[in-house]
Structure formats: structure tokens, C-alpha cells
Design a protein that fits this description.
mainly beta; 8 strands; about 10% helix; globular
Length: about 160
């Protein structure tokens, strides 16, 4: 029951009730970490009604929860770069909040960096394989970091 409450919180925080005019893409995926655990990742890419210097920046919000109920949620920048008509490279950097249940990564402020490669299936959908790294960036003396590999499905909202 507690995991259901956490998942509902993730959905609310990522703004899945927000107008699609502000959301270009929704991403969901399954992840695995080298320690043998699994989990899910949910991500939302935004553009639209921003102003000032951030008007053209590609903003994103993301959440990651693993089998041990360790939870991270963050907000930052992303980039998709097509290297051909169908193949793309994706990257993102997001500071966020980490809530450990089983794995202590040193503090609650963590940064996620992600790099992946994907293929467009249609004009609206794609799949990608990514690796991400969570780190507190040396904010505490305990900084073991955490990596995860994810198979992601991206759906573009029009």
C-alpha cells in the first residue's frame, strides 16, 4: 500500500494532470542496477509557456524508484540529438531529492546524469537504452553513487 502512495505522489509531482500544451513527451521505463535490483523510471519533458532566458531550454522532471523503495525525484535539463533520421542520443542532468529506504547514498540532495541511445519507431514514439548515475556530488563524505540501466519508452504528445 505504501508503494502505491509513493507512485501517486510521483504522478502528481511530475504533473501528469498538466495540460499537454506544456508537455512534449512522457517517458516510462524499467530499470536494473548492477546490484541486481529493479525499478521504474518516469519522466516528463516540457516546453511551451516559459519566458525570459529559459524560454528555449528543454526542461524535464523525472522520478526513479527501485525494488528497495529507494526514491529519487528531480528537475533539470535534457537533450535529444538525432544522429540520423531515426537514431538519437539522449542526455540529461537533474538535481533532485533522494529518499533512501534501504541504500544510503549519503544525504538527500543528489544529481542524476543520464546518457542513452534510442531509435524512433514512429513520429510519436521511440525506445531507448540509457544508463544513469546518481551522486551527491561530494556534498557529504559518504558518496558511493548509484548506477541504473533502463529500457525506456517515449511517447510524444501533439
Amino acid at each position: 500500500m505504501k508503494k502505491l502512495k509513493v507512485f501517486r505522489l510521483v504522478i502528481a509531482l511530475l504533473g501528469f494532470g498538466v495540460s499537454s500544451a506544456l508537455a512534449d513527451e512522457v517517458i516510462v521505463g524499467g530499470l536494473a542496477d548492477p546490484d541486481g535490483g529493479g525499478g521504474i523510471v518516469v519522466e516528463r519533458h516540457f516546453s511551451g509557456d516559459f519566458s525570459g532566458p529559459a524560454k528555449d531550454w528543454p526542461w524535464a522532471a523525472a522520478a526513479r524508484i527501485d525494488a528497495d523503495s529507494d526514491f529519487w525525484i528531480g528537475f533539470g535539463l535534457y537533450l535529444d540529438h538525432f544522429v540520423s533520421e531515426t537514431v538519437f542520443i539522449e542526455a540529461s542532468f537533474m538535481p533532485g531529492y533522494y529518499n533512501p529506504k534501504d541504500t544510503d547514498l549519503g544525504g538527500n540532495i543528489h544529481f542524476r546524469s543520464l546518457l542513452g541511445i534510442g531509435i524512433a519507431l514512429t513520429d510519436q514514439s521511440s525506445i531507448s537504452l540509457s544508463i544513469d548515475h546518481l551522486s551527491n556530488g561530494g556534498l557529504t563524505s559518504n558518496n558511493p553513487g548509484s548506477e541504473a540501466i533502463a529500457l525506456r519508452y517515449k511517447y510524444r504528445l501533439f
